[in-house]
Amino acid sequence: MLEFRQSLPPGDTGRGSLAHGQTVGPHSHVRGQLLYPSTGALATTTARGTWVAPANRITWTPPGFEHSHRAYGETDVRRIDLPVRLCRFLPALPSVFAVTPLLREVLLALSDGRAREPGPRRRLRGLIIDELTDAEPQEIYLPEPADDRLRTVTALLHADPSNSATLRELGRTAGASERVLTRLFQDELGVSFRQWRSMLRVQHALVLLGDGHAVTTVSSRLGWANPTSFIEAFVAVVGETPGRYQAGLRRSQRCTY
């Protein structure tokens, strides 16, 4: 079970909180698990990479899939465990989905701690499945490499997302040529070096925007040449502008949980 700072009650639903930077080490679940950060942002990491769910997304982790978590900002998390028989309707790999208004209300209701009869609980879970079955995953996903040379490069960027060094410059530290690293990014991760670095920066931008920083501040802090470049990269990954994303977070945070 996810070890929140405030313990979740027993059962298959609950609510808890994680402090900024708090982590939950590698673990897996017998059931499938949905985690909705109604405030803050939650990163889920597996051997395949890292998914980030801000307050307008929900994470899905299938049964038996080892993963860990990290919170960004004070993160209020709602947990919904799904029995194995329902998991077949959802993806076989960890995913992130957008939270529709209906889905949000069902998630909050099902995890509010109220005692409910089996029938109403079953129907609420059914609504969640219906909403997610029809939804396209909206993954803010960063693949992670296995090759040691590539891992050296990505570790440097994880340590400093604003690092604007070229792939050739980073390759000197990794002991690999730009040509070799370019091929490794495409073959192993399926994206170019520029795309990977941009996705990393967007993940960090989600956190900074959630903390209330201005778009121009986030752009300069994370190494984009100008705000326009940042906005274009953000839209390509998230599907909306940073300003609209931030306004949506503010609306969510005004709600009573």
Write a concise keyword list for the protein shown above.
single chain; 257 residues; alpha+beta; Jelly Rolls; Arc Repressor Mutant, subunit A; 2 domains; 10 helices; 23% strand; HTH_AraC; RmlC-like_jellyroll; AraC family transcriptional regulator; transcription regulation; sequence-specific DNA binding
Give an overview of the whole structure.
This protein has 2 domains: 13-133, Sandwich (Jelly Rolls); 145-252, Homeodomain-like (Arc Repressor Mutant, subunit A, Orthogonal Bundle), CATH 1.10.10. It is α+β, with helices and mostly antiparallel strands. Mean pLDDT is 86; it is low at 1-10. It is globular and about 60 Å long. The protein is built from 10 helices and 8 strands. Strands 1, 2, 3, 4, 5, 6, 7 and 8 form an 8-stranded antiparallel β-sheet that branches. A hairpin with a 2-residue loop joins strand 3 and strand 4. The longest helix has 18 residues, at 193-210. The chain has helices spanning 84-87, 101-110, 118-133, 148-159, 167-174, 178-189, 193-210, 215-221, 227-238, 242-253; strands spanning 13-18, 23-27, 32-46, 49-53, 57-61, 67-82, 95-98, 141-143.
In short:
This protein has 257 residues and is of the alpha+beta class. It has helices at 84-87, 101-110, 118-133, 148-159, 167-174, 178-189, 193-210, 215-221, 227-238, 242-253; strands at residues 13-18, 23-27, 32-46, 49-53, 57-61, 67-82, 95-98, 141-143.
Write the layout of secondary structure elements.
Blueprint: E1 13-18, E2 23-27, E3 32-46, E4 49-53, E5 57-61, E6 67-82, H1 84-87, E7 95-98, H2 101-110, H3 118-133, E8 141-143, H4 148-159, H5 167-174, H6 178-189, H7 193-210, H8 215-221, H9 227-238, H10 242-253
Antiparallel strand pairs: 1-6, 2-6, 3-4, 3-5, 3-6, 4-8, 5-7
Helix pairs in contact: 2-3, 4-5, 5-6, 7-9, 8-9
